[in-house]
Amino acid sequence: MADPAMNWQELEGLELADIGQWPRSAKIVALCLLCVLWLTLGSYFLLAEKVRHWQHSTHQEKELSEKLVSVRLQVAHMLAMEQQVIEAQQGLNQRLAKLPSRIEVAPLLDELSVMINAHGLRLERIHWEQAQAHEFATEWPMRIIVHGDYHQLGHFVAAVAALPQLVIIDEFSISRPKSEGAPLPLTMNMIAKTYTYQEEVE
What is the dihedral of CA 47, 51, 57, 59, to 10 degrees? Predict the structure, then answer.
C-alpha cells in the first residue's frame, strides 16, 4: 500500500490541466467532490426558491391579514355609525311624536287660560304671536301676562312644563308694579312656544 503522506504529496502536486493523467483514486475523489458540489448547489438553488416562495407567501399573508383587520375595523365603524343614525332617528321620532298637531295647538290657549285660573292667577293677556317656520317644524309663540304671587307663578310654570304637548317657556320676566299703598301682585310676562310639523303648515 502506498504511503498516505506520499499520496497527500502526490495530490498536492496534481495539476488541473493534467486531469487525464491523474491516478484513478484522485479522479474518484475529484468526481465525488464534484458530485457533492453539484448536490450542494442544486439543494441551495432549490431551497432558495422555496425560501423565496415562502417569504412571498408570508408577505402576502401578512398583507391579507392587515387588510382583513382594516376591513373589520371599517365594518365595525360603519355598524357603530349605523346604530348612531338609528338611535338619532329614534330620538328625533320621539321628539316629533311629542309635537302637537294643528288640531291640538288650536285649543292650547284655552287650556292655558283654564290652568291660569286654576292656579289663582289673574290673566291680563294671552295670544298667539307670529309663527316662525323652521326646517322640520313651525314654531308657535304665545305671549302670556299674568299676575299673582311667587307660589302661584311657580306652580303655573311647572304645570306648563308638564303638559303632554311640547311647550317650552322661552323667556319670562317677573316684576312688581310700584305702589304707594299695599304691595301689588307680581306680574309675569312670558313667551311660551309650541311646535307643529312643518308639513302641516299651510
Answer: -170
What's the chain's length in residues? Answer: 202
Q: Residues near 135 by Cβ (< 8 Å), separated by ≥ 6?
A: 198
Consecutive sets of 10 residues in the chain, 202 residues long: mean pLDDT of each? 47 60 68 79 74 80 86 88 86 71 80 93 93 84 94 92 85 84 86 78 44
Give CA–CA dist 154/168, Å, rounded: 15
CB 184 within 8 A of CB 176: yes
Distance CA 99, CA 174 (A): 28
Query: What span, in angstroms and rounded, lies between the C-alpha atoms of 6 and 43?
Result: 35
Structure confidence at residue 126 (pLDDT)? 93
> What predicted TM-score, i.e. pTM, was given to this entire model?
0.51
HSE-CB at 44 with a 13 A cutoff on CA atoms is 6
Cell 432558495 belongs to 48
Quote the CA–CA distance of 77 and 55 in Å, as a whole number: 33
